[in-house]
Amino acid sequence: MIEFYLDVGSGVSPYQQVVRQVRHALRLGLLREGDQLPTVKDVVAALAINPNTVLKAYRELEHEGLVAARPGVGTFVTRTLTDATLAAHGPLRADLRRWLARARRAGLDDESIEALFMTTFRTAAVEDIA
Description:
- One of its GO terms (molecular function) is DNA binding.
- Pfam families: GntR.
- Residues 12-80 form the HTH gntR-type domain.
- InterPro entries: Tscrpt_reg_HTH_GntR, WH-like_DNA-bd_sf, WH_DNA-bd_sf.
- By secondary structure, the protein is mainly alpha-helical.
- It has two domains: 14-77, Arc Repressor Mutant, subunit A; 88-129, no CATH class.
- It is 55% helix and 6% strand.
- It has five helices and two strands, in the order H-H-H-E-E-H-H.
- It has helices at 14-27, 40-47, 51-63, 90-105, 110-129, and strands at 67-70, 74-77.
- The protein has a two-stranded antiparallel sheet with strand order 1-2.
- A hairpin with a 3-residue loop joins strand 1 (67-70) and strand 2.
- Helix 1 packs across helix 3 (51-63).
- The chain is globular, with a radius of gyration of 17 Å.
């Protein structure tokens, strides 16, 4: 089962963080069809957030057709986002792990690594469009 976490410094709303974490888990195959999401009560207890925040996230996922709520039972995954070619990306993942290790050896903390990656990612995306 997925365990949610919140990054209070991210600038992303808590409900959106929950939605993104479910999408990532679906994309990576960590959640599969039929898997149950944590109950609203469990998420509220773990993250100390308002139940309406969790309900909003689960409703958005349901609207996208990724989960379905079963009253009195829970919320279950109805569709995954797993890319069939994801398993073939093992070499890319290994390269990325090596890059992360080099970045840490160069003295970058997690926030600096993320900033470097995201600015490079965005720049490359803009250059690819042009």
